[in-house]
């Protein structure tokens, strides 16, 4: 006869809450800029279709970690990355990986809006075109419109798609950059302080957008605003001196963090 | 748990939080005094003291309003996080418990005149004094727990509330007996019964404060399994009133 042990019964009665699938995994990641080590064996899972916030004081390594996730650090010649980072369980530092393709799957939005000095339309159309995602003119129009719509910008710019992208307001430019990032249908979007140059209304629009994008994309956001991290993310990782101090559900992190360093940082007592 | 040593980078933020803590201590001391004096006024039929207690209640009302305003300003201005957020929310809750305690003290004081006319036997007042002493100990201990952020003290307060409930139940029986003995006692005994109930409620507010202190310190809520009531609602009169 097959008897269930007490532990088994307990597991059956109280199953562990569903762990979201990790879209990306960083395992023991260290980063060196020349002789200087910026990250010390950091491990972090990025859950799928969730917003993960990376917080911590300046120079703590959160942006460095973010840039490892789509190999942006490759562009810095003195930068060396060790450890393992996977996307859907595939090593993204595998020499066989096409970095351009990888960055199409893992898009990025930067601190300062940086639209190309081209028309609004071209800003969005550029990516899909060079990645060969476009069948014909009509299809490209469709992609541009859909991306601008998803970025919450379409109604504001639909009558001036052929005007320069740099003529838009800061908040609109940032949403244009988000439209540009999602035009190539990425799976993950990395955001490095996307609202730090925006006013509160533009910030609110981007935050609302992040919330909507979460339906379809996995998002990692670096932010210096504790309130923003608390508002937009579901998971939060606290970095300090190149290490992760604490990772947890955002709600927990901002009401009762376990680590003193997290507490001191988010309450404004650091240093 | 996280210990609290460091100062905020913005010093005026520390000052604002300190203000709330001091104000709670002040309100707490005031509430204690009001309850103490209300019970003394009742026991000694001291109308002048009762009047003072009644007018003193305004101070607690003002204290609560001030804490509410300051706390809301802090939330708006600083957007507190973690322990700070729990502190601010905690002071709002505690100040409203203290304000209620003041109201209950005032309510006891208001009954002094009514009871003075038909003075009862001393034993009734002793019962009232005993339960009041216990409630005041609870209040004092919970204010200490708040001042020292002591979880151990919180648990002591929380467990002792049962004693107040038990005392209240027995006082209830006693007063009922006096009423049955002589209907002329009914008016005074009913007032005394309300006084006893008020004191029992003061104990409950002390327990509420204990729970808030626990939340401030740990960030988690205490489980609600503690039996939270007196048994007076089960008491029935099994003898007919003497006619």
UniProtKB/TrEMBL annotation, chain B:
Signal peptide stretch: none
Keyword Cytoplasm: yes
InterPro entries registered for this protein in UniProt: PhoU, PhoU-like_sf, PhoU_dom
KW Cytoplasm (keyword) present: yes
Domain PhoU per the UniProt entry, residue ranges: 24-112, 130-213
GO terms for biological process, alphabetical: intracellular phosphate ion homeostasis; negative regulation of phosphate metabolic process; phosphate ion transport
Homology family: Belongs to the PhoU family.
Free-text function comment from the UniProt entry: Plays a role in the regulation of phosphate uptake.
NCBIfam families: phoU_full (TIGR02135)
Subunit structure: Homodimer.
Name of the protein in question: Phosphate-specific transport system accessory protein PhoU
């Amino acid at each position: 006869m097959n008897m269930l042990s007490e532990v088994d019964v307990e597991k059956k009665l109280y199953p562990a809450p569903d762990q979201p699938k990790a879209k990306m995994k960083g395992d023991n990641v260290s980063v060196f800029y020349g002789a200087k080590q910026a990250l010390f064996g950091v491990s972090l899972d990025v859950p799928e279709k969730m917003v993960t916030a990376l917080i911590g004081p300046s120079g703590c390594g959160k942006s460095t970690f973010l840039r490892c996730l789509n190999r942006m650090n490759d562009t810095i010649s003195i930068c060396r990355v060790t450890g393992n980072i996977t996307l859907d369980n595939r090593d993204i530092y595998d020499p066989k990986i096409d970095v351009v393709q990888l960055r199409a799957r893992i898009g990025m939005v930067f601190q300062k809006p940086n639209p190309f000095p081209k028309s609004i339309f071209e800003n969005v159309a550029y990516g899909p075109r060079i990645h060969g995602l476009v069948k014909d003119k009509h299809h490209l129009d469709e992609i541009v419109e859909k991306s601008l719509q998803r970025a919450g910008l379409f109604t504001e710019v639909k009558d001036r798609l052929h005007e320069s992208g740099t003529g838009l307001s800061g908040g609109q430019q940032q949403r244009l950059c988000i439209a540009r990032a999602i035009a190539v249908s990425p799976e993950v979007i990395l955001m490095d302080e996307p609202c730090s140059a925006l006013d509160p209304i533009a910030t609110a629009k981007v935050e609302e957008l992040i919330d909507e994008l979460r339906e379809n994309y996995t998002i990692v956001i670096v932010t210096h605003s504790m309130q923003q991290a608390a508002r937009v993310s579901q998971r939060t990782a606290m970095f300090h001196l190149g290490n992760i101090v604490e990772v947890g559900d955002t709600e927990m992190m901002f009401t009762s963090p376990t680590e003193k360093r997290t507490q001191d940082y988010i309450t404004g007592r650091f240093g | 748990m996280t210990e609290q040593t460091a100062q905020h980078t913005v010093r005026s933020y520390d000052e604002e939080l300190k203000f709330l803590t001091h104000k709670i201590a002040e309100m707490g001391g005031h509430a204690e005094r009001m309850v103490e004096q209300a019970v003394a006024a009742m026991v000694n039929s001291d109308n002048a003291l009762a009047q003072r207690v009644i007018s003193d209640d305004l101070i607690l009302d003002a204290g609560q309003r001030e804490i509410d305003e300051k706390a809301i300003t802090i939330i708006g201005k600083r957007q507190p996080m973690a322990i700070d957020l729990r502190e601010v929310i905690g002071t709002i809750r505690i100040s409203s418990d203290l304000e209620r305690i003041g109201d209950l003290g005032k309510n006891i004081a208001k009954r002094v005149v009514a009871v003075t006319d038909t003075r009862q036997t001393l034993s009734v007042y002793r019962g009232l004094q005993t339960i009041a002493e216990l409630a005041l100990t609870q209040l004092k201990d919970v204010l200490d727990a708040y001042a020292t952020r002591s979880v151990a003290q919180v648990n002591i307060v929380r467990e002792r509330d049962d004693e107040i409930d038990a005392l209240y139940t027995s006082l209830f029986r006693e007063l009922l007996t006096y009423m049955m003995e002589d209907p002329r006692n009914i008016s005074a005994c009913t007032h005394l019964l309300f006084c006893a109930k008020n004191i029992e409620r003061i104990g409950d507010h002390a327990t509420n404060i204990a729970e808030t202190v626990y939340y401030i310190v740990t960030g988690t809520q205490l489980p609600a399994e503690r039996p939270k009531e007196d048994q007076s609602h089960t008491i029935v009169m099994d003898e007919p009133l003497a006619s």
